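Methods — Computational structure assignment.
A single polypeptide chain was analysed. Its primary sequence is given first, followed by the predicted tertiary structure written as structure tokens.
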Amino acid sequence: MTTYQGIYPILYAFFKADGTLDRDAMRRQVEASIRHGAHGIAILGLATEANKLSTGERRQVMEWAAEDIAGRLPLAVTISEPNIPEYVAFAKAAAALGANWVVLQPPSGRSVPEIEYIRFFGAVADACPVPVAIQNAAMYLGTGLSDTGLKTLGRNHSNVKILKAEGAAAAIRQTIETTEGMFTVFNGRGGLELPDNLLAGCAGLIPAPECFDVQVKIYNLIRQGGEDNLQQALVLYREILPLIVFLMQSIDNFLCYGKRLTARRLGLKQVFDRAPAQAPDAFGLATLKRYSEYLPIW
């Protein structure tokens, strides 16, 4: 296990009108995350739309994030490349820039026995200069390891220290028990079941940024312990839950509306999407406003 914990907002990819990455918007996310108490920052996952970015753009996002964070918070970098050498090369580049740990997504377009994924992840992890997390998100990525497979991977490859799970709190609790606590476990899913995830044994969550500041408060209250703090945390959770439920109807939906809410809170005037992307409509924007208008500008 590791000592990494807390709320790690995973940065959205913001684009300019000409389709290129927006340097200022990416910097604003980092600064807002640091000012409002994030425990770390993550990049290049589903929220960053890494599948729409070229290799050069993914490296650019990583370089910008490392430059802007400047060692003030831990940085976690998600990696999904075509083969083992390119996974390892990206991981080494991340470590050279100051990334504290990397998150491995399963290689895309493959349908092979679980043991092959274990061997693949293990080979990458053994060559990584920083601790490795596995993103186990079958519901989003189409591929995941069983709890038994995770335990085998962790036992055979000691550098696999973290699990970025994407699932219900009860299932995550079962995973923690089956793997006998060998991993530092983060959940995602936009912060759904945040209190229950922490009570189940998660070290933290990796949500998108739109309401991470409230999630930081919830995390801190629960970690302080005590019934009064738990009840305060539950009140805050009930306030943001309708928003999270609305956003997490699908990946496309949270990219569409979550990015627009984050832009509003960052003081950005317009969001430019990179195709393919869900377009906002009047009903969706009205729903977003109803559930988020109380959230202030950062």
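Note: The beta strands are 6-7, 41-43, 75-79, 101-104, 132-136, 160-165, 184-187, 204-205.
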